[in-house]
Design brief:
By secondary structure, the chain is of the alpha+beta class. The protein has two domains: 190 residues, Fructose-1,6-Bisphosphatase, Chain A, domain 1 (2-Layer Sandwich), CATH 3.30.540; 129 residues, D-Maltodextrin-Binding Protein, domain 2 (3-Layer(aba) Sandwich), CATH 3.40.190.80. The protein has eight helices and 15 strands. α1 runs antiparallel to α2, α2 runs antiparallel to α3 and α5 crosses α8. The mean pLDDT is 93. The chain binds 2,5-anhydro-1,6-di-O-phosphono-D-mannitol and magnesium ion.
Length: 340
């Protein structure tokens, strides 16, 4: 068998990128390195989920009133430990914690970045061996270094993200991230325990044939979304319709597939939930940053996700993201039918 000598690991890639910025002091690189470590620890636990007593419900509910799974708690605490150990992070906002977590010791107070995360996305899929993920978003704090971080450090619009990414625990484990200079994907090679560059400079197709939405909520959708779903299902050979419906129920997995293949993901507002379900800070903003960096789009149906001014750390927003041409078409339906 021919040995491959051109493998680039995540850490090599991070260091190479850092050297392209002469003034960079390595702070973001160190933070990203520690995220890679947390990802490997969580991956190990996810892979053992059916084997050890880590599977099942923790018995508590998180701030959204949902049952917490043991792995949610595990992922949350391992990310927090890794962020603390990096010395570059001053505070964390997590789906699993009602309030922000402040690193108040000297090293934490001096940290340059705040970190938003959904430590285990799609957690209802854990018990049934379906792909799940972790999502993260990094901002430079606006409060002075040396002080304890403030809530305002987190309430910055998505355009201010310095990095964002996700880890997908699927048929293989991948880490995909951007620092605003394209999107790169790394696949975990279990034989060497390293994330290796497998998907350099990801670009999403301009058009696709996949639509992803929980159609069980159809009756509660607004008419623009209903009409768009019908459009996806109509026959039109020229535009390759009917499209294929694919919905896993794990945002990371649904988005990742559509990113690579071309498609649209929608979690809209409904008659029951005017802001949809997904959270702006640690689900929609990081995914939107990646979508745009890959040449796609992300909106709340009206405006760019990345331009929304956050008001609260657990804020929800309607979410539409995917291939540019599909997004444009969906927006036409929303504009027309939701305004008559
Ligand atoms: P979670 O963070 O509690 O796991 O919830 C978020 C998940 C997303 O991954 C997914 O897109 C969505 O919830 C699915 O929701 P639904 O079951 O309502 O379709
Ligand atoms: Mg979750």
């Amino acid at each position: 068998m021919t040995e491959q000598f051109n493998v680039q690991t995540l850490n090599q890639f991070i260091i190479q990128r850092q050297s392209e910025y002469p003034g960079a002091k390595g702070e973001l690189s160190r933070l990203l390195h520690h995220i890679g470590i947390a990802a490997k620890i969580i991956n190990r636990a996810v892979n053992k989920a059916g084997l050890v007593d880590i599977l099942g419900e923790q018995g508590d509910q998180n701030v959204q009133g949902e049952d917490q799974q043991k792995l949610d708690v595990f992922a949350d605490s391992h990310f927090i430990n890794a962020l603390k150990a990096s010395g570059e992070c001053c505070a964390v906002a997590s789906e699993e914690n009602e309030n922000i977590i402040l690193f108040e010791d000297e090293m934490g107070r001096n940290g340059k970045y705040v970190f938003c995360m959904d430590p285990l996305d799609g957690s209802s899929n854990i018990d049934v061996n379906v792909s799940i993920g972790s999502i993260f978003s990094i901002y430079e704090r606006i409060s002075p270094r040396g002080e304890v971080a403030k809530i305002e450090d987190f309430l910055q619009e998505g355009t201010k993200q310095v990095a964002a990414g996700y880890i997908i625990y699927g048929s293989s484990t991948m880490l995909v991230y951007t620092t605003g200079n394209g999107v790169n994907g790394f696949t975990l090679d279990p034989s060497i325990g390293e994330f290796c560059l497998s998907h350099p400079n990801i670009k999403t197709p301009k058009s696709g044939t996949i639509y992803s939405i929980n159609e069980g909520n159809y009756i509660n959708f607004h008419s623009g979304v209903k009409k768009y779903i019908k459009f996806c299902q109509e026959k039109d050979a020229k535009s390759k319709r009917p499209y294929t419906s694919r919905y896993i129920g794990s945002l990371v997995a649904d988005f990742h597939r559509n990113l690579l293949k071309g498609g649209i993901f929608i979690y809209p507002q409904t008659n029951k939930n005017s802001n949809g379900k997904l959270r702006l800070l640690y689900e929609c903003n990081p995914i939107a940053f990646i979508a745009e960096q890959a040449g796609g789009k992300a909106t709340d149906g009206k405006q760019r996700i990345l331009k929304i001014a956050p008001e609260a750390i657990h804020q929800r927003v309607p979410f539409y993201t995917g291939s540019t041409n599909m997004m444009k078409k969906a927006e036409e339906f929303l504009d027309f039918f939701d305004n008559i």
